[in-house]
């Protein structure tokens, strides 16, 4: 009896928080049907062309509208898919993108330091080059953050490969990671104010 | 505390030696106080009186029983689980369409600008997040700041975002467009313009040093030669200019160099926190107050004042004297110095010394006998020290003193050879606008013109005369005689309500402009944000009156500076001006002035003359920044500063440390900033000394009817030790009646008693106790020291005799717990020099602004729920009559063995490897065990959801790097961890180590005296390393073994050895106590220091 009274609510609480039910992996529809598959995989555009703040700001940065039009004022400029972008540019009103990776307000995540220490985009965001609509791959829970913060060497890659999708280490990660950790002075930081302020 | 008056004499007599006490109740052994302090909480509402048993009863929680509570908890928990079923709404990301080139979203940028106050500017660097100013810092390149920023500057961000700011122009009741304003007032053909020559046009504005405003005023005068201009600021006085005109034949501005002064004599001058340029003065003064080693010297500060100010609190010898007696003190000092053989300066009339002696005798005859012994001792000490340090002293006088006193101070500085060394003279920075505006019309003359119907259109630009003009002028009724009145203001204040036209003004963070500092250095005021509302600056209005509607103020400003930049290329000059925040080479022109000794002798003769002549000479001038010749009526009976009769009281109007002259009254940060001495928040009060309170049968909170020359005001009493007896001090700036909701009804309006013939102080005040009481919210009586060694202090002589007097309060201590395993790398630590702290409160506001601390309001403060992470404790020292004062900034000590951490049931407060005591809001469940177990009482609990329903604009004031806390969580100082982590991440990205001194906390940055210093223990900068080696270093409550990361350097004062018997009790110079209630070095098992060395013997040459 006691087990049921305690267990059923606990199971329910665990269940509603499971990735499937919490909608973690649901592709998010955006106001502009931007396809990462095409831009990353087909065109080979580096992540940092659009997300240019990633190595100098806490935010990777959703690109300003004018960034889209660097190319699209020349190619596919009349595509109906781009009407929303043109409207944004002409009327000087931002495109209201929907946030995919949403952290609580008391978490202060810094992209620049992660990218600068050799954490690849893919490590947290997955194979964006295979996503028609971007969805959240990692659970973004504190336990997940700490798994990496306790053993950062398991996820390090050379700085040159940070934006590479599908990168595989040429030699065992245990060896390479340890070496990169030394080279990039990567420390395991697990104290609270590293992220919460 | 009923009947407290009876016990005063006894209680005061019992206090001797270095006994620290926080509040008068403690001294009296008041049971109500004992109970309140025992539970470390103030009295509950409405239980100020009555028997202690009723207090105890009030402590039992009523209403909810434990059983009910658990039942409700269970239900809430069950429902909380269901809350997880709901997906939070998905946020939107709104990127720029075109990102400005120099903006990095997520990163902060700093822009230089300047904060104008009463015509003088302080250079600032303002932090901006994506075009949103959030935090003000001082500009290290600006002479008035040198990197520091005061409380007003810090709090100005909140004023920018104040949701109660006026938003649209209006005409009478209805909204009106700026275009309509231009149509009405711009010259033809654009608008209606004014009568030929501008007859009937009048402008009322603050004194200004702005070259742009001066040029616009000059052009206005050319266009409308018959227009009148009045400069008015309620706290500015004409007396200083009158004095230089009298003595030097022209207005001149004294420039003091406290960094080279060995002896400073402040006559009613709060130069450390209350005068223009005070940040710089405090910086320079503190530079000579750093006894880094026992051998180093210190300057010595003498202060004579009535109402207690931070300057008096840190003075080595403070003379308690009513403001009206300051003239007597100054004359006596002059006579004393002139008595020295050979003291007579060249060119002085031979009878100058005799004239001074006669004036002294005349003033002494009317002097108060009770002051005389103390005053004589103080004077002989001052004279002795001044004569020992020729050319290295400063005599400075407060603005509210009459011209005579200022003139005597200038004469003293000349006599002592200070001019050209510690004192220089320059052209006043306000002179340019004064000249451009033509013959100024003082406020009383303007009111006469208004009443005579001679003014057709009155423009009131960023002034509030309906509220703050002298009461006898009755500005409101005079304003009713004007055909058209126009008010430009930040708020719909009292004046706005009485005007036909109202135009919102721009906050200084929204506008272009320029301003000069006290020394003349010009800065460009550049906007940090586009105007939030439909406002116009005073310069915009002046330009509109000139018909310059096509030009932007920005263009006009550049035009002015293009002319002044000289032939060099203008763009680099302009860029440099904006980038540095101070334009090099714009200091005011120096003046080489010799005092007209004959004029001084004549002045002294007037003082020595009959009653009427003396009264005229000693009455402070009107509060008009331009002309002292008019508006000075013959004082009514009792106007002459003479000895008060037994029941006769003197009233002094003081600048308020929080709201200034009332203009900051709607700023909740400032309202909640405790006054440096009274620790009052959200109120002003009639402050009296304990002896006066006892004599009149008053106690704190008692309502009294204050009367002055037929005007009356009902005010609560506050008892402050150290105030001059027979003096009632009343802060200006409260009792606002405008549309500002925060300011409305807070405190009482002291301007109602202020008349144009006695704007600063007046004898003949009456005080009649009323039956009622009024609750005052003070932070004074919280957290008593209970006789423990919290502030350690010694005189310089004691320190030299025993340099290791703090040794028992530092070093290893036995503890049960194992030490925390720290990593290598930076170990954060702070060192606070108590010798330098002047208690001004800039750090408190800086902390609040940086860390998104909420305000709790008066009721919150009364329940001891204030949320300041950093407070400044003020301890009295010695007797209640002549107390010394020790200020102590108290914040989380970041203990290495933190008592709070051991008791937290949910690990919400833990230790970081770099020595921070971390507070994790999202773990905290609000048990408050940590606060109970904290010996320093620095933890703050969110009793209510203070951040709920924040106005949209106030959300913009939040620091995005700091969590906004919710109800039910504990919070406390984090050592500005967001700054540490930002700096560390920036260094990591750049692939380098943190530089020593790279991380600075908000409190450290704001502090004008650099009392607070922060850094890494393992890689300290030079200053931190020095402080960590300082023999004065100690830990508060060291014996507890908490191993704080905040180190204090003991407070050293420098009273003179000579003439000590005659001098009033110097701060810290009391004989050592024997009782257990003391907290000085004597109580720490130290032998009493050996007798102090004789003057000169143990002192390094060149120091006092």
Which short descriptors sum up this protein?
heterodimer; A: 197 residues; mainly alpha; globular; B: 1104 residues; alpha/beta; seven-stranded mixed sheet; six-stranded mixed sheet; 41 strands; 29% helix; disordered N terminus
Can you walk me through this structure?
The complex is a heterodimer of chains A (about 200) and B (about 1100). With about 200 residues, chain A is mainly alpha-helical. Chain A has ten helices and one strand. In chain A, helix 5 crosses helix 6. Chain B has about 1100 residues and is an alpha/beta fold. Helices cover about 30% and strands about 15% of the residues of chain B. Chain B is built from 36 helices and 41 strands. In chain B, strands 7-6-18-17-16-8-9 form a seven-stranded mixed beta sheet. In chain B, helix 8 runs parallel beside helix 16 and helix 24 crosses helix 25. The longest helix of chain B is centred in the middle third of the chain and has 20 residues. Chain B is globular. The N terminus and C terminus of chain B are likely disordered. At the A-B interface, helix 1, strand 1 and helix 7 of A face strand 2 and helix 34 of B. Strand 1 of chain A pairs antiparallel with strand 2 of chain B.
List the topology elements.
The complex is a heterodimer of chains A (197) and B (1104).
Chain A: H1 2-16, H2 19-22, H3 36-42, H4 47-50, H5 65-72, H6 83-91, E1 97-98, H7 111-116, H8 121-125, H9 142-150, H10 173-183
Helix pairs in contact in A: 5-6
Chain B: H1 4-14, E1 20-21, H2 24-28, H3 31-38, H4 52-59, H5 66-83, E2 92-93, E3 108-117, E4 120-129, E5 132-138, H6 151-160, E6 170-171, E7 174-175, H7 178-185, E8 201-205, H8 211-223, E9 228-231, H9 239-248, E10 253-256, E11 263-267, H10 278-287, E12 300-305, H11 310-313, E13 317-320, H12 326-338, H13 352-365, H14 369-388, E14 393-397, H15 403-415, E15 423-426, H16 431-437, H17 443-451, E16 457-461, H18 465-468, H19 475-479, E17 484-489, H20 494-497, E18 501-504, E19 513-516, E20 522-525, H21 538-545, H22 553-564, H23 570-580, E21 590-591, H24 597-608, H25 611-618, E22 649-654, H26 668-671, E23 680-681, E24 686-688, H27 690-696, E25 702-708, E26 711-719, E27 727-731, E28 761-773, E29 777-778, E30 793-795, H28 796-801, E31 828-833, H29 842-850, H30 857-862, E32 871-877, E33 884-890, H31 899-903, E34 909-911, E35 917-919, H32 929-933, E36 940-941, H33 952-956, E37 970-971, H34 977-990, H35 1002-1006, E38 1012-1016, H36 1022-1029, E39 1033-1034, E40 1046-1049, E41 1051-1053
Parallel strand pairs in B: 8-9, 8-16, 11-12, 11-14, 12-13, 16-17, 17-18, 22-27, 24-26, 30-41, 31-40
Antiparallel strand pairs in B: 1-32, 3-4, 4-5, 6-7, 6-18, 10-15, 15-21, 19-20, 22-28, 23-29, 25-26, 25-28, 31-38, 32-33, 34-35, 36-37, 39-40
Helix pairs in contact in B: 1-27, 6-29, 8-16, 8-21, 9-15, 12-13, 12-14, 12-15, 13-24, 15-24, 24-25
């Amino acid at each position: 009896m006691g087990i049921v009274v305690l267990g059923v609510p606990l199971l329910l609480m665990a269940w509603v928080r499971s990735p499937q039910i919490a909608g973690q992996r649901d592709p998010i529809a955006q106001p502009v049907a931007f396809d990462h598959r095409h831009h990353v995989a087909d065109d080979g555009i580096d992540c940092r062309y659009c997300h240019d703040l990633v190595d100098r700001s806490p935010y990777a940065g959703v690109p300003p509208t004018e960034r889209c039009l660097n190319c699209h004022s020349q190619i596919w400029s009349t595509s109906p898919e781009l009407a929303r972008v043109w409207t944004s540019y002409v009327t000087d009103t931002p495109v209201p993108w929907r946030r995919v990776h949403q952290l609580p307000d008391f978490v202060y995540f810094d992209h620049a330091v992660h990218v600068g220490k050799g954490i690849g985009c893919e490590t947290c965001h997955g194979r964006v080059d295979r996503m028609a609509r971007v969805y959240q791959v990692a659970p973004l829970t504190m336990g997940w953050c700490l798994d990496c913060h306790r053993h950062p060497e398991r996820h390090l890659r050379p700085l040159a490969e940070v934006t590479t999708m599908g990168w595989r280490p040429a030699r065992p990660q245990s060896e390479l990671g340890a070496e990169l950790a030394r080279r990039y002075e990567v420390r395991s930081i697990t104290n609270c104010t590293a992220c919460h302020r | 505390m009923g009947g407290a008056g009876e016990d005063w004499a006894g209680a005061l007599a019992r206090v001797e030696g270095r006994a620290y006490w926080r509040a008068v109740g403690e001294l009296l052994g008041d049971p109500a106080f004992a109970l309140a302090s025992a539970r470390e909480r103030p009295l509950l509402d409405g239980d100020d009186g009555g028997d202690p048993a009723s207090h105890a009863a009030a402590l039992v929680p009523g209403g909810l029983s434990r059983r009910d509570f658990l039942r409700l908890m269970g239900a809430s928990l069950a429902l909380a689980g269901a809350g997880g079923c709901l997906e939070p709404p998905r946020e939107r990301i709104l990127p720029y369409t075109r990102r400005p080139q120099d903006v990095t979203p997520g990163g902060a940028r700093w822009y230089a600008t300047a904060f104008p106050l009463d015509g003088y500017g302080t250079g600032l660097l303002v932090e901006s997040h994506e075009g949103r100013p959030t935090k003000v810092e001082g500009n290290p390149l600006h002479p008035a700041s040198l990197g520091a920023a005061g409380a007003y500057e810090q709090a100005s961000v909140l004023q920018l975002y104040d949701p109660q700011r006026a938003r649209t122009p209006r005409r009478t009741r209805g909204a009106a467009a700026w275009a309509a304003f231009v149509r009405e007032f711009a010259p033809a053909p654009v608008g209606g313009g004014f009568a030929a020559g501008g007859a009937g046009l009048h402008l009322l504005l603050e004194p200004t040093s702005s070259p742009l405003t001066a040029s616009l005023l000059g052009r206005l005068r050319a266009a409308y030669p018959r227009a009148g201009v009045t400069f008015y600021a309620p706290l500015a006085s004409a007396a200083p200019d009158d004095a230089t005109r009298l003595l030097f034949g022209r207005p001149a501005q004294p420039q003091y160099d406290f960094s080279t002064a060995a002896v400073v004599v402040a006559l009613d001058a709060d130069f450390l926190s209350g005068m223009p340029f005070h940040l710089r003065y405090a910086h320079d003064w503190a530079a000579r107050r750093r006894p880094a080693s026992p051998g180093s010297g210190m300057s010595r500060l003498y202060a004579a004042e009535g109402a207690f100010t931070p300057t008096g609190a840190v003075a080595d010898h403070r003379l308690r004297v009513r403001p009206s007696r300051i003239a007597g003190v100054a004359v006596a000092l002059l006579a004393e110095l002139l008595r020295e053989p050979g003291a007579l300066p060249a060119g002085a009339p031979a009878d100058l010394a005799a004239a001074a002696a006669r004036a002294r005798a005349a003033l002494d005859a009317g002097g108060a006998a009770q002051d005389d012994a103390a005053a004589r001792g103080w004077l002989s000490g001052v004279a002795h020290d001044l004569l020992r340090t020729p050319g290295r002293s400063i005599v400075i006088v407060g603005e509210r003193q009459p011209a005579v006193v200022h003139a005597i101070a200038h004469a003293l500085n000349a006599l002592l050879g200070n001019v050209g060394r510690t004192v220089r003279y320059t052209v006043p920075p306000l002179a340019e606008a004064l000249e451009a505006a033509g013959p100024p019309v003082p406020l009383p003359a303007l009111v006469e013109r208004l009443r005579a119907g001679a003014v057709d259109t009155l423009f009131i630009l960023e002034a509030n005369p309906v509220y703050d003009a002298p009461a006898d002028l009755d500005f409101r009724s005079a304003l009713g005689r004007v055909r058209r009145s126009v008010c430009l203001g930040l708020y719909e204040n009292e004046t706005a309500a009485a005007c036909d036209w109202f135009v919102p003004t721009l906050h200084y963070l929204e506008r272009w402009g320029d301003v000069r500092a006290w020394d003349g250095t010009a800065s460009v005021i550049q906007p940090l944000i586009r105007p939030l509302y439909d406002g116009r600056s005073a310069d915009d209005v002046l330009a509109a009156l000139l018909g310059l509607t096509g030009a932007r103020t920005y263009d006009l400003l550049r035009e002015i500076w293009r002319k002044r930049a000289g032939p060099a290329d203008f763009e680099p000059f302009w860029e440099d001006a904006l980038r540095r925040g101070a334009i090099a080479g714009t200091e005011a022109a120096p003046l080489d002035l010799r005092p007209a000794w004959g004029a001084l002798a004549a002045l002294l003769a007037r003082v020595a003359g009959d009653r009427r002549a003396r009264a005229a000479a000693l009455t402070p001038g009107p509060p008009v920044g331009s002309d002292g010749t008019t508006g000075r009526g013959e004082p009514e009976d009792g106007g002459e500063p003479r000895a008060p009769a037994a029941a006769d009281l003197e009233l002094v109007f003081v600048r308020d440390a929080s709201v200034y002259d009332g203009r900051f009254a709607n700023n909740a940060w400032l309202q909640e900033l405790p006054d440096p001495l009274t620790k009052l928040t959200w109120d002003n009060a009639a402050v009296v000394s304990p002896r006066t309170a006892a004599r009149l049968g008053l106690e704190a909170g008692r309502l009294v009817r204050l009367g002055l020359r037929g005007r009356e005001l009902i005010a609560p009493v506050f008892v402050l030790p150290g105030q001059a007896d027979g003096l009632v001090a009343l802060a200006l700036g409260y009792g606002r009646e405008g549309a500002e909701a925060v300011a409305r009804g807070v405190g009482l309006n002291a301007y109602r008693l202020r008349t144009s013939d006695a704007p600063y102080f007046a004898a003949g005040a009456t005080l009649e106790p009323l039956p009622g009481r009024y609750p005052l919210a003070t932070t004074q009586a919280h957290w008593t020291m209970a006789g423990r060694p919290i502030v350690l202090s010694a005189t310089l002589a004691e320190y030299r005799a025993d340099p290791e007097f703090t040794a028992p309060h530092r070093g290893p201590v036995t503890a049960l717990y194992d030490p925390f395993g720290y990593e290598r790398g930076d170990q954060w630590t702070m060192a606070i020099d108590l010798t330098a702290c002047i208690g001004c409160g800039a750090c408190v506001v800086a902390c609040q602004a940086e860390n998104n601390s909420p305000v709790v309001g008066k009721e919150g403060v009364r329940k001891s729920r204030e949320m300041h992470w950093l407070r400044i404790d003020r301890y009295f020292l010695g007797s209640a009559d002549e107390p010394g004062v020790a200020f102590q900034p108290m914040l989380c000590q970041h203990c290495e063995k933190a008592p709070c951490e051991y008791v937290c049931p949910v690990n919400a407060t833990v230790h970081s490897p770099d020595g921070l005591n971390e507070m994790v809001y999202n773990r905290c469940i609000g048990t408050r065990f940590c606060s109970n177990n904290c010996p320093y009482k620095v933890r703050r609990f969110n009793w209510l959801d203070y951040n709920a329903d924040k106005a949209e604009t106030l959300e913009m004031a939040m620091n995005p790097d700091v969590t906004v806390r919710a109800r039910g969580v504990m919070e406390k100082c984090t050592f500005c961890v967001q700054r540490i982590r930002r700096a560390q991440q920036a260094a990591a990205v750049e692939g380098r180590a943190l530089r020593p001194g790279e991380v600075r906390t908000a409190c450290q940055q704001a502090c004008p005296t650099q009392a607070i210093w922060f850094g890494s223990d393992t890689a300290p900068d030079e200053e931190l390393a020095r402080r960590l080696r300082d023999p004065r270093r100690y830990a508060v409550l060291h014996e507890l073994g908490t191993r704080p990361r905040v180190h204090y350097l003991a407070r050293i004062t420098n009273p003179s050895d000579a003439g000590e018997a005659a001098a009033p009790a110097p701060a810290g110079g009391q004989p050592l106590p024997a009782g257990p209630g003391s907290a000085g070095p004597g109580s720490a098992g130290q032998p009493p220091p050996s007798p102090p060395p004789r003057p000169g013997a143990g002192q390094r040459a060149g120091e006092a």
